[in-house]
Write a structure and sequence with these properties.
Layout: H1 2-18, H2 22-28, H3 30-59, H4 62-73, H5 79-120, H6 132-152, H7 160-184, H8 190-199, H9 201-214, H10 217-227, H11 232-275
Length: about 300
């Protein structure tokens, strides 16, 4: 247990230090670059038609049409277009964010795991215990179980203490299942992965829960962007970058812990195998007993007097 706690803290500080590396920072900026490119493409091709469509829907509402006429009478003739533009932004931003984070999860975790392996575990054998299809199946099944657990515990969310405990536990379990699998997919065999999950389950769930609480921080920034519309374009990119950085930290923490635990397990197993190996004594080439040496004849049997 003490060994696992030491490994837990060691992997935590290593992940924190890696987050300051220029390569990790560059990877965490990837969703921002992708989001900017995606927004430009969507705006170039779909902005004007989308705003016009929403504006027509708003004008079709009776009391809103009266409000627009009243505002026009007071010199605000672009109110419906402004509201339509804000609604298009609020409706499209979650889609852009989800796509960006999905790409981060697909490409950042394998890249960071491989980076940690090359820097710290270059001699660790890769047994290819999980491919892309296995990872997708495992992640999909784990996500389905987590969603069912969230639905079952939904009535308990109205009790604030339980909501603050149950939700992080469920998301922590999901985080550990998905990220630990991806961290071990290249290097561990199926049997090794199962053994590591059983031996280190509490530590892995603890890592997942801590990462789940850290993932709540960007949500505060995101909510502030929705409340303070004037700062929306500044706070939302900051929230996305924090999401990506937390995701990178989580991937690094699981990679350091899982690969170090795998290396220790293999070293322990090899040590145990060496201890049970007993060297056999060489046999005599002249038919002697073992240990009598070559060319040493057997002593004659004593006479029984028969």
């Amino acid at each position: 247990m003490l060994c696992r706690m030491g490994l837990l803290f060691d992997s935590f500080w290593r992940a924190m230090a890696n987050c300051l590396h220029r390569r990790v920072i560059a990877w965490s900026l990837f969703p921002l670059v992708f989001m900017a490119l995606m927004v430009w493409v969507l705006g170039y091709f779909f902005w004007a038609p989308a705003v016009l469509k929403v504006q027509q829907l708003l004008d079709g509402v009776g009391w809103l049409h009266s409000l627009w006429l009243w505002l026009q009478g007071h010199g605000v003739g672009y109110a419906s277009e402004l509201v339509a533009s804000v609604l298009v932004v609020l409706g499209s931003t979650p889609l852009v964010i989800v796509i960006s984070l999905l790409l981060v999860s697909l490409f950042m975790t394998p890249a960071l795991t491989n980076w940690v392996a090359q820097r710290r575990f270059p001699a660790l054998e890769r047994k290819q215990g999980g491919g892309a299809l296995a990872s997708i199946t495992w992640s999909g099944g784990s996500t389905l179980i987590a969603l069912i657990a969230l639905l079952v515990t939904l009535p308990l969310w109205f009790m604030p203490p339980l909501m603050l405990v149950l939700t992080p536990l469920i998301w922590g379990w999901l985080t550990y299942r998905v990220m630990a699998f991806d961290a071990l997919a290249e290097h561990a065999s199926k049997q090794e992965r199962r053994s590591l999950f059983i031996r280190n389950r509490l530590a892995l769930i603890l890592i997942g829960v801590i990462c789940g609480y850290l993932g709540a921080a960007p949500g505060i920034v995101w909510a502030s962007g929705l409340v303070f519309i004037a700062a929306f374009w500044i706070l939302v990119p900051i929230a996305i970058w924090i999401y990506a950085l937390v995701f990178a930290f989580s991937s690094l923490w699981f990679a350091h812990y899982c690969l170090a635990a795998l290396q220790q397990m293999r070293q322990t197993r090899m040590g145990s195998q060496e201890e049970i190996r007993v060297p056999l004594a060489p046999e005599s080439s002249e038919g002697g007993v073992p240990g009598s040496g070559p060319g040493v004849p057997l002593a004659p049997m004593p006479s029984t007097g028969a």
